[in-house]
Design a protein that fits this description.
CATH class of the largest domain: Alpha Beta
Number of strands: 10
Shape: globular
Order of helices and strands: EHHHHHHHHHEEEEEHEEHEEHH
Radius of gyration: 21 Å
Number of domains: 2
Structural class: alpha+beta
Largest sheet: 5 strands, mixed
CATH architecture of the largest domain: 3-Layer(aba) Sandwich
Helix content: 40-55%
Strand order of the largest sheet: 2-5-6-7-8
Distance between the termini: 46 Å
Strand content: 5-15%
CATH topology of the largest domain: Trna Endonuclease, Chain: A, domain 1
Length: 312
């Protein structure tokens, strides 16, 4: 039986959302909970559906990550043509689903794709050169994967420890909170551990913190010597990579940061043990053109309507 409230958990992405707009955080974690049930209140069902919206860039990244995971486990040789056919086929299917299968998505959003730009009607995906843009970017990402340092290691012989396939939500614990840290790929070679993050977008100021989070995950779950752990960002769009090592003290700083952020998160709870949130209005909305432009939840947010619809 599913609990009435979500589990006590923390993730870097949810923490960023809480910092940017507590109201959007409330929608994404609490209002949506149970919204997959057919007899749930309509606003709760809508909040759940809205969590499933995806952008074109996010979906392309998902396809590339999935292809890489399958390619590594199957040890297939380079085949750009077949890979591009796979990406193109899946992308076309997703575009058609977004336009033609709206009712099916509303009934079962977990099993269908709905693009944000289609749902909110801010871009016609059949206009312009979107298909060529996607093909060009996918080709660049795949070529750089086949030329990557990590793939060369794999071809020389490694022992796979973990690989992210089919949404394996890997985690560790800080106090009694589950900390989600989804590792793309972890392997052992010559006594060293390598943790790889495949990056399909541009570099971000968050990249290093994410690597530290992966290192903390490995340290907590595998009790490994950090002197033998290497963290790698493979920037597939640029065809570049960065390698890092972190000390135990640096990881303790990350753990302390997580504890501090959990304290802030608990400020929004009525009951910390049961993870029961305060009422919706306790989570302030922070409407702005930046925050609201790509917010999944603006359809159900009164502040968005007040600030960007009624004023126009």
């Amino acid at each position: 039986m599913i609990s009435q409230y979500p589990e006590k958990s923390w993730s870097f992405s949810k923490d960023k959302l809480l910092n940017r707009c507590p109201r959007a955080y409330f929608y994404s974690k609490f209002l949506m909970w149970g919204g997959w049930e057919l007899d749930a209140p309509e606003r709760k069902r809508k909040a759940y559906r809205l969590t499933k919206l995806t952008t074109i860039e996010q979906y392309l990244g998902t396809l590339i990550h999935g292809y890489i995971a399958n390619n590594i486990t199957a040890l297939k040789s380079e085949d750009i043509k077949t890979a591009l056919e796979y990406v193109g086929k899946e992308f076309n299917r997703a575009v058609i689903a977004s336009y033609k299968l709206r009712e099916e998505w509303e009934r079962n959003p977990k099993n269908y794709i709905m693009f944000y730009s289609v749902y909110y009607k801010n871009r016609n995906l059949f206009e312009g050169n979107l298909g060529m843009e996607i093909k060009r970017k996918a080709k660049t990402l795949l070529q750089n994967y086949y030329n990557s340092k990590t793939l060369k290691d794999i071809q020389d012989g490694i022992r796979i420890i973990e690989i992210d396939r089919e949404n394996n939500f890997t985690s560790f614990f800080v106090d009694n909170y589950k900390i989600y840290s989804i590792v793309d790929f972890m392997y052992e070679k010559n006594g060293n551990i390598y943790i790889v993050d495949w990056k399909t977008g541009k570099r971000s100021v968050d990249d290093e913190f994410q690597l530290k989070l992966y290192a903390l995950y490995a340290y907590k779950n595998y009790n490994i010597d950090l002197n033998n752990v290497y963290l790698i960002n493979e920037y597939l769009y640029e065809g570049d990579f960065e390698e890092r090592k972190y000390s135990k003290d640096e990881l303790l700083e990350v753990e302390n940061y997580i504890k501090e952020r959990i304290e802030i998160m608990e400020h929004y709870l009525k009951d910390k043990e049961k993870n029961i949130p305060q009422d919706e209005m306790f989570f302030p909305a922070r409407p702005s053109k930046y925050n609201c432009k790509w917010c999944n939840f603006k359809e159900i947010c009164p502040e968005y309507k007040e600030n960007f619809i009624l004023k126009n």
